[in-house]
UniProtKB/TrEMBL annotation:
Gene3D superfamilies: Vaccinia Virus protein VP39
Pfam short name (any one): Methyltransf_7
InterPro entries linked: MeTrfase_7, SAM-dependent_MTases_sf
Source taxonomy: Eukaryota, Viridiplantae, Streptophyta, Embryophyta, Tracheophyta
Superkingdom of source: Eukaryota
Protein name: Loganic acid O-methyltransferase-like
N-terminal signal peptide: none
Example GO molecular function: methyltransferase activity
UniProt source species: Arachis duranensis (Wild peanut)
Regions annotated as coiled coil: none
Length: 278
């Protein structure tokens, strides 16, 4: 298992099924860097994690930049420059992830990736990131009543991205020296997740965002924020309608090519994708 060092690995190990016979271990650290010795892995699986950026692009909190994202907490409905800044960071992160795993996998080693994708620019009626807009309005309301400062809200952004399939393909093409694409399939998100009950929907997003929110605002505001969010979800129940969700899951199976040298030279990835309708 791998996760960031802040992850509660003890809880993970306590919850593993006792009756299953296998050896479990954990390697903490960002998957955007090296985690394992060279040429030691036969199979890598990453699920629902490659949508997290390793960091927020600096320009989105720089008030002098055209990519400044004041008044929003995500690139949903933001100017094109904000979406471009997210996309550039994503491209760097994916490049680093692929390069690191290329070093660690044995020749012909396999890598199974699945992560959410969206082929629409996220400004339409019901899209996956509309939820961030709703959470953003809760934070703004809390700033208005003085629970948190306006500056804190302005400097908060969610480091999650739903890239287009086209963008992912471009990044993978930039790495074709190391990996061949053995399989690529789009799975329908709505068939995988069903969250029709408000409280489950709220808990799901709380599980995903609590750490990021606590880090920025402190632990005290989390309960209040998600109570407000639960009220907003009641007001806008359409947000839970997965039929309208413009989100899919991309499954990719990569094979590490034989001839790739495991020298430390970085894989060239001069790609800066854009997240437009394709
Ligand atoms: C939505 S959870 C998915 C968990 C699990 N893989 C699953 O499919 O149920 C995403 C996880 O990715 C972790 N994560 C995000 N960015 C990461 C990074 N750069 N390195 C390691 N783990 C990361 C988060 O901490 C979180 O635990």
């Amino acid at each position: 298992f791998n996760d960031q060092v802040s992850n509660d690995f003890n809880t993970l190990f306590k919850n593993l099924p006792q009756q299953r016979i296998y050896y479990a271990t954990a390697v903490p650290g960002s998957f955007c860097g090296r985690l394992f010795p060279k040429q030691t892995l036969h199979l890598v699986h990453s699920s629902a994690a490659l949508c997290w950026l390793s960091k927020l692009p600096n320009e989105i909190t720089d008030s002098d930049s055209s990519a400044c994202n004041k008044g929003r907490i995500h690139y949903t409905d933001a100017p094109k420059e904000v979406a471009d800044a997210y996309a550039t960071q994503y491209s760097k992160d994916m490049g680093n992830f692929l390069h690191a795993r290329a070093q660690e996998l044995v020749e012909n080693g396999l890598m199974l990736l699945q992560f959410p994708v969206s082929n629409v620019l996220l400004d339409s009626d019901v899209d996956p990131a509309k939820v961030f807009e709703l959470i953003g309005t809760c934070l703004v309301d809390m700033a208005k009543v003085g629970v948190i400062s306006e500056e804190k809200v302005d400097s908060f952004n969610v480091p999650l991205i739903y890239p287009s399939v086209k963008a992912v393909k471009e990044i993978l093409r930039g790495c074709d020296e190391c990996f061949s694409i053995e399989w690529m399939e789009i799975l329908e998100f709505k068939n995988m997740v069903s969250l029709p009950i408000g409280q489950i929907f709220v808990s799901w997003f709380r599980a995903a965002l609590q750490g990021t929110i606590e880090k920025h605002f402190g632990a005290k505001i989390v309960d209040k924020l998600f109570e407000r969010f639960a009220e907003k979800v009641k007001e806008f129940p359409d947000i839970m309608n997965t039929d309208k969700l413009k989100l899919d899951v991309l499954f990719v199976l990569l094979r590490r090519k034989n001839k790739f040298s495991t020298s430390n030279s970085p894989v060239p990835l001069n790609i800066c994708h854009k997240m437009y309708k394709t």
